[in-house]
Design goal:
- It is built from 14 helices and 11 strands.
- By secondary structure, the protein is α+β, with helices and mostly antiparallel strands.
- The strands form 4 sheets. The protein has a 5-stranded antiparallel β-sheet with strand order 1-2-3-5-4. Strands 6-9 form a two-stranded antiparallel ribbon. Strands 7-8 form a two-stranded antiparallel sheet.
- The protein is elongated and about 80 Å long.
- 37% of the residues are buried.
């Protein structure tokens, strides 16, 4: 294969649309990644040729430290090619496979959020965010590549041809899998899938074919992270919500939340003003919290529970009354405890938490109250009031409402 001005050295990777080679750009005596479009596609589908050239034009407009730099694009004797920055550190896909990605997941997500935010601000949606398109430079910084199926925000095209949805099934947002109009939020959902895969080592939604995977994106609950990553669950929840309205509003919103998590995990002086930023306590191994339910907002729970509430109102309110009136033992314990025992350290409130954590705590408290109303106090496992309140404490160890409720529930569950 002969591309004027380039000497091909080796193959870096192959895909359905193109093959990427390591090559030397002779005019500047530098290594480049030379992407050459599949001859079969050139011969059979002119749309792919147009998309290939479109990728080069898009990247050429996007000058950002976390987006690959494009050097050249053209066609030589019916061979479409694009020369771009060579990133010798390999792909995130490779680092997930060997476990190295677990060492810096938030840093990776943050850098990709910066790249996506820049692209979004310039009117582009990537539509194919996945580990294979996230590259490492020799200084270990990241660059997002493969904008071949990106589209402008106001573009109307949703599919390559009738019945085929653009993107990679394992990383598609629910709206993308359903062939609906996309917003920038679709890229954030895909980044959430990447985040989960980095932490856990496998994709959250898998199946025998693209349709089965698409159905999981649209209907399966948000996956739970292992216990050691519990403090990141609210970030994942904000990325993998089923509708764009429930996700982070923008890449900048995601970046602010990541920065808040980093501050919370960083060692700080043990003072009244900073102690609440400490790491969220993790449950003991085997505690089962990694299997707990995914709390859902009031808008989803109320329609589902309405019929149950009507049927069990009497029993539910009776139990709720019992929980609302502490036993003598609990009252004595409250009277004898130091004043700040149930108020949180130095009276700190939930509004001291990072915004996304505070929102998750509020949703968990709503869920717990609904469980109480239908007499699901301590069972079934994975869907009861006690476990919901315990999740609140894991996120907000000094939450007064949850601590008080758990005291009453402990006595109630022990009696049962």
């Amino acid at each position: 294969m002969n591309i004027p001005g380039y000497t091909i050295t080796s193959v870096l990777g192959e895909g359905g649309m193109a093959t990427v080679y390591l090559a030397e750009q002779l005019s500047l005596n530098r290594e480049v990644a030379l992407k050459i479009m599949s001859p079969r596609l050139v011969a059979t589908d002119s749309d792919f040729c147009a998309r290939f050239l479109n990728e080069g034009r898009i990247i050429a407009k996007l000058r950002h430290r976390h987006i690959v730099t494009i050097y050249d694009i053209g066609c030589a004797e019916d061979t479409y090619f694009m020369a771009m920055e060579y990133c010798p550190g390999g792909t995130l896909k490779e680092r997930i496979a060997d476990g190295r990605a677990r060492a810096r997941p938030l840093q990776i997500v943050r850098q990709m959020a910066e790249a996506l935010g820049y692209a979004h601000d310039h009117g582009f949606i990537h539509r194919d965010v996945k580990p294979g398109n996230i590259l490492f430079r020799d200084d270990d910084t990241l660059a997002l590549s493969d904008f071949g199926i990106a589209k402008t925000v106001d573009a109307k095209t949703r599919v390559t041809q009738e019945g085929w949805v653009i993107g990679t099934p394992e990383y598609m947002s629910p709206e993308q899998a359903g062939g609906k109009e996309l917003t920038q939020s679709a890229d954030l959902y895909s980044l959430g899938i990447v985040m989960y895969e980095m932490l856990v080592g496998h994709k959250p939604f898998q199946g025998p074919d693209a349709l089965a995977i698409a159905m999981q994106h649209m209907t399966a609950p948000i996956p739970r992270l292992p216990a050691e990553y519990l403090s990141l669950q609210h970030v994942l929840d904000g990325l993998l919500a089923k509708t764009p309205a429930e996700r982070f509003a923008s890449a900048d919103d995601l970046i602010r939340e990541i920065d808040a998590v980093d501050r919370a995990r960083a060692p700080l002086p043990d003072t009244d003003a900073t102690r609440f930023l400490g790491p969220v306590p993790q449950p003991a191994a085997g505690s089962g919290h990694e299997r707990l339910f995914a709390p859902t907002g009031r808008r989803r729970l109320l329609p589902i529970l309405a019929g149950v509430l009507l049927l069990t109102a009497a029993a539910g309110w009776a139990v709720f009354d019992r929980l609302s009136a502490p036993s003598d033992a609990v009252q004595n314990a409250q009277h004898s405890a130091p004043p700040d025992t149930l108020d949180g350290i130095d009276g700190r409130a939930t509004n001291d938490l990072p915004p996304r954590v505070a929102q998750r705590v509020a949703r968990l408290l709503e869920t717990a109250e609904m469980h109480v109303a239908v007499n699901r106090l301590c069972a079934p496992v994975g869907s009861n009031a006690r476990e919901a309140y315990e999740l609140v404490i894991e996120l907000d160890p000094n939450n007064r409402q949850a601590l008080n409720a758990l005291q009453r529930l402990d006595a109630q569950c022990a009696a049962e």
